[in-house]
Design goal:
The protein is an alpha+beta fold. The chain has 29 helices and 12 strands. The termini are far apart.
C-alpha cells in the first residue's frame, strides 16, 4: 500500500471537502432552529462539548414569541421549573432583575406580558453562549470532527419529489436521530440519581421542541411508553437512579400518567414493614456483640425502619393523591405543580437512599460500616441536591396547606376527592394535611439518629464519617428552616400589603407623600407580633408591630384592613405638630432602651437634628420583647439593629430617668421620619 505525500497532487484531490466549507445551513441559529435534522446534529455536538442548558433555554424561549396570552400563562410555569428555578436541573443564568422578582412572586401570578418580557430577557442573556457553541460546531465540522455527517448529507443531497418533499425527508431523518438520542440518554446504566434526572430532563426538553417542529419519537408516541419519564426512576432506583419530574415540559411530551397497574411492584412492598434485625441474626452472632454494638445496631435499624416508613408515606402522597388528581384533572397543572412541588424528585431521592440502606442489611444483618453511605447522601453534590429539593418542598408547606383548605371549601368536587382519598387504607387514617409535613418532620430526625449512631460506634474512622454526615444533616436542616422562615415571612408581608391602608398618614402631607405607595414585600421581615403602643398615660392602642430590614412599622387592625395611622398626644385626638407620632420609624435614625420596671416593655427613641420622639411599646411577653431587643444586644448578622442602625444602650434606664427622658424628648419637635 503506497504512502501518499503531502506534495502529491492526488493527496490534494483526496482532501476535497465533502462538506460545504461555508456551512451555509449553520450560518445562524435562526436558520438552524427551523431545520430539525441540522438542529439535532448541533444539539448532539453541544451535549458532548458544552453545557446544553443555554441552547435548550434559547429554543424554548423562542416559542413564546408565538404564544397567546393563555398559552404563555401555561407554558411559563414549565419554562420556570425547567430553566429558572433555583433547583432546576437545566438552570441557566438569570438576569438579576428577573431573579429578584421571581424570588418575591410566584411564577403563575406574574402577568402574561411580564412573563414574555422575562423570557425575552433570559433569551438575550444566553445568546452569546449559543453563538459561541454554533461557531465551534462550524469550525469542527469543516475539520471533519463532528458526528452524523452522513445524515446531514442525506438531507442536503436529497432531490425533492412530489412524493417525498424535502421537509418530509428531513423529518424522517430527524425522527431516526431523535430515537437514537433517546437510546443514548435513557437506556444506559447510570450511577446517580442526578445523572438520570439530568438525562431525562435534557431529552424531555429536546423532544418537546422537536414536537413543535413536527418531529415525533417512538419513545413518546408508543402507548406502552406513556409516562416513561415518571417511571424511569422507579424502575432503576435499585441501581442508584432517579427520574426527572423536574418539570411538566417532560410531562407534556409523554402524555398522561401511567395507570396504576404499571407501577413497579416494589412500591407494593412498602406496605409491608421490614423485618427486625434481631430476628435475622443467628443467636451465636448476636451473643458475641457488645452492649454498645447492640445499641448501635438498634439505632441503625431505627434509621432503616423510619426511612422505609417515610418512603411509604411519600408514595401515598404520590400515588393516592398526586397521580389521580393529575389523571382526572381534578386540578390544573399549575395548581398541582404548586401543591406537590418537586414531589417526584423527592420521592425518587428517598427511594434511592432506602435502597442503599436495604442493600447494607442484605450484605450483612450486622451492619459493619454505614459511614460512607451516609456521607455520600448528605454531603457533597448529592447533599446539595438533597438540600435544594427539600428546601423547595418544605418552604411552600404552609402556603400549600392553606391552599388545600381553601380549595376544599370552595370546590365541592375537589373536597369530595380529598375525602375519598383520605379514606383509603394506605393513608392509615391520616389526612392530606398530616401527610404533607412529613418531609419536614423527617429532616428533623436525621441529625439525632446519625449522632446516636456515631456515639455508639467504636471504630474512629467510621465514627468520624458518621459524625460528619450528622453535621451535614444539621446544616441542611438549618438551611431549610431559614428558607421556611423567609417564605413564611414573605407570605405574611404579602398579606399585610394586600390589606394595607395608608389613608391614616394624611395628617402629615410629607409623611403621606413618602409612604403612600410603600411596598412591604420589598423588605425582609425580622420579626412581627402584637404589641401595646402607649401613646400617653391615658391612651394605649393595640397594634401589629413589624420589624423590617430598615423600618419599624406599627399597624392598627380595622376590620379586614391594616391601617397606618398617625397618633396624637394631645387631648383633642388630632395628630399635629409636636404632638404627632408616626406609625413608621426609620431604624437608621433610632435606638432603643429597655424599660427597667416592665420586663415586657421597651422604648424606641427616634431622633433627628432638631429633637426626638419616644415610643413606649409593650410586647405580649418578656420572650417576645427579647425578639425585638435581642438582635441589638447580640449583634445578630443580617438584622439592622445588630449592624448599628438601631442602637441598644445598656444598662436600662431607671424609673426616674425613664420619666424625665420621656418628658424632655416629647418636646423635641415633629416626628417626620426623615
Amino acid at each position: 500500500m503506497s504512502i501518499i505525500g503531502a506534495e502529491d497532487e492526488d493527496f490534494e484531490n483526496d482532501l476535497e471537502p465533502t462538506v460545504d466549507d461555508q456551512c451555509s445551513h449553520f450560518n445562524s441559529i435562526e436558520l438552524v432552529k427551523t431545520r430539525p435534522t441540522h438542529l439535532l446534529v448541533f444539539l448532539q455536538h453541544v451535549m458532548l462539548q458544552f453545557d446544553c442548558a443555554p441552547l435548550l433555554c434559547y429554543l424554548h424561549a423562542d416559542l413564546f414569541k408565538n404564544y397567546s396570552a393563555k398559552e404563555t400563562k401555561k407554558q411559563f410555569l414549565d419554562f420556570y421549573n425547567t430553566f429558572l428555578d433555583k433547583g432546576a436541573i437545566l438552570r441557566v443564568p438569570v438576569p438579576s432583575h428577573v431573579s429578584y422578582e421571581l424570588d418575591r412572586t410566584r411564577p403563575d401570578l406574574i402577568s402574561e406580558e411580564v412573563q414574555k418580557r422575562y423570557v425575552q430577557d433570559i433569551q438575550v442573556m444566553v445568546i452569546p453562549e449559543v453563538i459561541m457553541q454554533l461557531e465551534d460546531f462550524r469550525t469542527k465540522r469543516m475539520m471533519g470532527m463532528t458526528r452524523h455527517e452522513s445524515e446531514l448529507l442525506e438531507v442536503e443531497s436529497h432531490h425533492a419529489t412530489e412524493r417525498i418533499p424535502t421537509e418530509m425527508k428531513e423529518k424522517a431523518v430527524a425522527e431516526t436521530l431523535l430515537d437514537r438520542m433517546a437510546d443514548t440518554l435513557l437506556s444506559q446504566p447510570l450511577i446517580s440519581p442526578f445523572c438520570v434526572s439530568f438525562s431525562s430532563a435534557i431529552f424531555g426538553a429536546v423532544a418537546s421542541y422537536m414536537k413543535h417542529l413536527g418531529v415525533k419519537t417512538k419513545t413518546t408516541d408508543n402507548k406502552k411508553s406513556k409516562g416513561f419519564f415518571r417511571k424511569v426512576g422507579i424502575l432503576r432506583y435499585n441501581d442508584g437512579g432517579a427520574s426527572a419530574s423536574n418539570s411538566s415540559l417532560t410531562g407534556s411530551v409523554v402524555g398522561p400518567p401511567p395507570p396504576q397497574e404499571e407501577v413497579d411492584p416494589r412500591l407494593l412492598e412498602l406496605e409491608q414493614d421490614p423485618p427486625n434485625w434481631r430476628e435475622q441474626v443467628p443467636s451465636a452472632d448476636f451473643q458475641s456483640l457488645s452492649k454498645k454494638e447492640i445499641k448501635r445496631q438498634e439505632v441503625i435499624n431505627e434509621l432503616f425502619i423510619t426511612e422505609h416508613a417515610h418512603v411509604r408515606m411519600l408514595s401515598v402522597l404520590q400515588m393516592v393523591f398526586f397521580r389521580p388528581m393529575e389523571h382526572t384533572e381534578i386540578a390544573s397543572q399549575p395548581e398541582l405543580a404548586t401543591i406537590f412541588l418537586s414531589l417526584d424528585d423527592i420521592f425518587e431521592m428517598h427511594c434511592v437512599f432506602q435502597t442503599l440502606l436495604v442493600k447494607l442489611r442484605q450484605d450483612d444483618y450486622i451492619v459493619k460500616t454505614i459511614g460512607k453511605t451516609l456521607l455520600n447522601r448528605f454531603s457533597g453534590s448529592e447533599g446539595d441536591w438533597f438540600q435544594k429539593l427539600t428546601a423547595r418542598f418544605c418552604s411552600h408547606q404552609s402556603y400549600v396547606l392553606d391552599e388545600i383548605k381553601t380549595r376544599q371549601k370552595r370546590d365541592p368536587r375537589f373536597g369530595a376527592f380529598i375525602q375519598e382519598a383520605e379514606g383509603k387504607p394506605q393513608c392509615r387514617r391520616l389526612q392530606l394535611k398530616d401527610i404533607i409535613p412529613t418531609e419536614m418532620q423527617r429532616l428533623t430526625k436525621y441529625p439525632l439518629l446519625l449522632e446516636n449512631i456515631a456515639k455508639s460506634t467504636e471504630d474512629p474512622e467510621e465514627r468520624e464519617m458518621v459524625q460528619q454526615a450528622a453535621d451535614s444533616c444539621r446544616k441542611i436542616l438549618n438551611h431549610v428552616n431559614e428558607e421556611v422562615k423567609e417564605k413564611e415571612n414573605l407570605r405574611m408581608l404579602k398579606d399585610y400589603q394586600r390589606r394595607l391602608d395608608t389613608s391614616g398618614l394624611k395628617p402629615s402631607n410629607e409623611l403621606h407623600q413618602e409612604y403612600k405607595n410603600i411596598d412591604l414585600t420589598l423588605r425582609k421581615m425580622i420579626f412581627e407580633g402584637p404589641v401595646t403602643w402607649k401613646v400617653t398615660k391615658e391612651k394605649s392602642i393595640e397594634v401589629q408591630c413589624l420589624l423590617l430590614s430598615d423600618l419599624l412599622v406599627l399597624l392598627q387592625r380595622q376590620d379586614d384592613k391594616m391601617l397606618l395611622k398617625c397618633q396624637s398626644k394631645n387631648h383633642s385626638g388630632v395628630p399635629e405638630g409636636k404632638q404627632m407620632l408616626s406609625p413608621i420609624i426609620k431604624l437608621s435614625s433610632a435606638f432603643l432602651r429597655e424599660v427597667a420596671t416592665d420586663p415586657k416593655a421597651f422604648y424606641v427613641i427616634f431622633t433627628w437634628d432638631s429633637g426626638a420622639q419616644i415610643y413606649e411599646l409593650v410586647a405580649n411577653s418578656a420572650a417576645d420583647r427579647k425578639k425585638y431587643v435581642g438582635p441589638a444586644q447580640e449583634g445578630v448578622e443580617g438584622c439592622p439593629w445588630g449592624r448599628g442602625g438601631l442602637r441598644s444602650l445598656q444598662p436600662p434606664l431607671s424609673l426616674a430617668e425613664n420619666g424625665s427622658g420621656a418628658r424632655n424628648a416629647n418636646t423635641g419637635g415633629l416626628c417626620s421620619c426623615r
